[in-house]
Amino acid sequence: MIASLRAETLKARKRWANWILFGVLMLILLLFGYILTYVILKHPPANFRSPVPAGVLIRAVFPENLVANVLSPMTSIGAAIMIILGGLSTASEYGWLTVQTILIQKPGRIAVLLGKLANLAIITFLVSVTALASAALASYVLVSIDGSSSAWPSTSTLLKGFGALWLELAVWTAFGMFLGIAFRSTAAAIGGGLIYLFVLEALIAQLLHDTPGIKEFLKFLPGVNAGAINASFRLTFRSPNAITQLVDATRGWITLLIYLVFFTITALVIFQDRDVGGS
Fold first, then answer.
1. Residue 244: its H or E element
2. Nearest CA to 81 among 184, 194, 206?
3. Sites in the chain below the pLDDT cut of 70
4. pLDDT tens track for 65-100
């Protein structure tokens, strides 16, 4: 497993797609989540309408709302990027026919996949650390430019928020990794994952959020449970876009942990038992 982890770490560092995905995530988080939000709310257009004044909404980018603001895009664009990352890590081995070459070497199948899993766990950890640290720096700079005062979240809130961020990114990455092994095709894994995310999780879940029967089904979706966790980190003002969550945060944590274990074990079983020579 250690040899496999070293190999996966080397491949991850040299794969330009990973760096591009990381750059896109940081760009969206910092540019749209902080800089543009601050500029627009600091100088709102003449037709700006909101039940909450712009002078209050702008505090979303200040340190007091650090955790909530970082977690906000992770159920949409953050999830999409991690699905692509996970899919590339496994499906590309089939596309380039390197999976057979890997398996004729010394590591067994379980060791190979455990190395991939460990590498993805490290990547999601580093992405979580970088995202939270970059957002903290951006919020500090913006509140200093604004000349306002804002208290940082407590240490326990920061640690809990980091845990939520890491767990959510890990679940979506594991989902992409599982799809890559199940479909053995990069296009199918990424396409299937994004269709699920943006059609079932984003579109249908929002349209049928309050529909009896469907609502009970939606409670089991990972994105819905991740949203419940994110909603537990409340903004310091009443958000005009807040929606009623279908589940509580405790159930959200448990459900995401179950999904993480399920995707991991299922990927291991499929990879261990299925012939890798066919298409």
1. none
2. 194
3. 240-242, 276-279
4. 999 999 999 989 999 999 999 999 999 888 877 787
The Cα 196–Cα 194 span in angstroms is 5
**Distance between CA atoms of 34 and 60, rounded to whole angstroms?**
9
Q: How far apart are CA 172 and CA 168, in angstroms?
A: 6
Greatest Cα pair distance, the chain, in angstroms, is 67
What's the residue count for the chain? 279
Nearest to 128 by CA among 89, 164, 171: 164
Q: What pLDDT is stored for residue 217 in this prediction?
A: 86
> What pLDDT sits at residue 244?
75
Closest CA to 279 of 115, 86, 100, 116: 100
pLDDT of residue 50: 78
Report the C-alpha dihedral over residues 220, 60, 126, 219, rounded to 10 degrees: 0
Spell out the SS3 assignment of 16-62: HHHHHHHHHHHHHHHHHHHHHHHHHHHCCCCCCCCCCCHHHHHHHHC
Residue 242 confidence (pLDDT)? 67
